[in-house]
Design goal:
Blueprint: H1 10-17, E1 29-34, E2 44-48, H2 49-69, E3 77-80, E4 90-91, E5 97-98, H3 108-117, H4 131-144, E6 148-152, H5 160-165, E7 175-178, H6 185-194, E8 199-202, E9 206-207, E10 210-211, E11 213-214, E12 223-224, E13 230-234, E14 240-242, E15 251-257, E16 265-277, E17 280-288, E18 292-293, E19 300-301, H7 302-309, E20 317-321, E21 329-334, H8 340-354, H9 358-366, E22 373-377, H10 380-388, H11 408-411
Parallel strand pairs: 3-6, 6-7, 7-8, 21-22
Antiparallel strand pairs: 1-2, 4-5, 9-10, 11-12, 13-14, 13-15, 15-16, 16-17, 18-19, 20-21
Helix pairs in contact: 7-8
Length: 415
């Protein structure tokens, strides 16, 4: 089978959307799920019972491990990410549902009712299309919950407003599960500081297409979910390795074959091998490998930009092209976090780091790209979130680091 990306499957998935059976997979469809679309736009992923079973073979071991390490989460209530899309539920032309009503659907018919009984916020709140109403009702339920023990969300930024309005710091919270790698790292660290008595456990690499890794207590990084798919790892030279053959310290692009009809699918995520748990590799998520921006041959990737900006420990940073030809890139910063003087220093140092990319250095030397321009913004994370709501659910919105859109200068409030 050839390695494929989503664009290679558009024709087949289109046929599935129209209701045609036996396309990509013989099993009947349960629904379609929509990816977050943080880089290339939303994608519809076909779901079968087999794929849902594969999710459960990862989720249940994770929860079992967590409950053994933190028994109080078995006795209290939980808040699972139930975020509105800001738009009505939809169906495909063939009548298939797009999306599930809540994350409880992933636990199956036997467990879903038990999960629903423990919810601090009723699942019907997730159906609210009005974000202000959703936020008000969600905060009211969380504020009234006196035995809140577990919070499981995707993006750490999702919790920022709820943290204050629902007074989460005063709850008997034991565990908070959210993204804490790549661009989410500074926001997860901020939550750790604001909730010092809570165990913040980073989520594994759990994509709409399938589960790649799960976190387990005592391991330095999430471990490959070996029972939830067939995984290969492709290096820079294009060579593919099985899970048992990867090398510690090496970086790879992830390929997955799932029970939802994806075969040797390049999911677009880049990982680093940090060790092994038995024979299964532990993997650090580095960023999106398919998310690149190219003005004159430099091909900046999300993972590379993340590494260039990591030393500055910024809570908000975004690199994006400037619209004028030859102007290069702007570095957008939060004015509340970075002074004008420091913004100039950071931009200069980040520009030097970006020159580790030979093509970027070459373009800078030729004058094809201007030096990285620092631009300070007022509450840029709020602007980013508002813009992304047009194509993503609130809870799926990841913090920014790289964008190919040159229009952010007009959208951000610059000072």
């Amino acid at each position: 089978m050839p390695v494929v990306r989503y664009d290679d499957l558009l024709e087949s998935i289109g046929r599935m959307e129209r209701g045609e059976p036996n396309v990509l997979v013989a099993e009947a469809l349960v629904a379609f799920e929509e990816t977050g679309g943080s880089t290339a736009g939303p994608k519809l992923i076909p779901y079968t019972e087999g794929l849902l079973d594969a999710f459960r073979r990862a989720l249940l071991p994770w929860l079992d491990d967590l409950a053994n390490a933190y028994p109080s989460i078995s006795r209290g209530r939980a808040y699972w990410s139930i975020s509105p899309a800001g738009r009505a539920r939809r169906k495909t032309p063939g009548g298939s549902l797009i999306g599930f009503s809540s994350d409880a659907a992933y636990f199956g018919e036997a467990l879903a009712p038990l999960v629903l009984e423990t919810l601090a916020v009723p699942p019907e709140v997730g159906a609210f299309e009005d974000l202000a109403r959703w936020r008000e009702v969600t905060c009211r339920h969380l504020d009234a919950c006196e035995d809140l023990a577990l919070i499981s969300v995707w993006s750490p930024t999702f919790l920022f407003e709820l943290l204050d309005e629902a007074e989460l710091a005063a709850k008997p919270l034991a565990v908070l599960s959210c993204w804490d790698q790549a661009s989410s790292r500074p926001y997860a660290d901020l939550l750790r500081r604001r909730l010092p008595g809570v165990r913040l456990q980073g989520k594994g690499l759990l994509a709409t297409e399938g589960v790649v890794t799960i976190p387990l207590e005592g391991l330095p990084m999430p471990v490959l979910a070996i029972d939830s798919g067939y995984f290969e790892f492709r290096d820079e030279a294009g060579r593919c390795f099985e899970a048992s053959d990867v090398a510690v310290g090496s970086e790879y692009e992830t390929l997955m074959t799932t029970e939802g009809g994806l075969y040797r699918y390049a999911i677009g995520d880049r990982v680093r091998v940090c060790g092994f748990a038995g024979e299964a590799p532990c993997l650090e998520f580095l960023g999106r490998s398919e998310s690149s921006v190219d003005l004159c041959g430099e091909k900046l990737t999300e993972a590379f930009v993340l590494s260039a900006l990591a030393p500055f420990k910024l809570e908000f940073s975004l690199i994006a092209p400037v619209s004028a030809p030859g102007a290069g890139y702007a570095l957008y910063l939060d004015a509340a976090e970075v002074s004008r003087e420091n913004s100039l220093r950071i931009a200069h140092a980040a520009d030097r780091s970006l020159e580790q990319n030979p093509q970027y250095a070459y373009a800078r030397g030729l004058g094809q790209l201007a030096p990285l321009t620092p631009l300070r913004c007022v509450r840029p994370l709020e602007t980013w979130t508002r813009e992304r709501l047009a194509c993503q659910r609130l809870g799926d919105i990841k913090p920014p680091v790289l964008s190919g859109d040159s229009g952010w200068t007009a959208r951000f409030a610059l000072i």
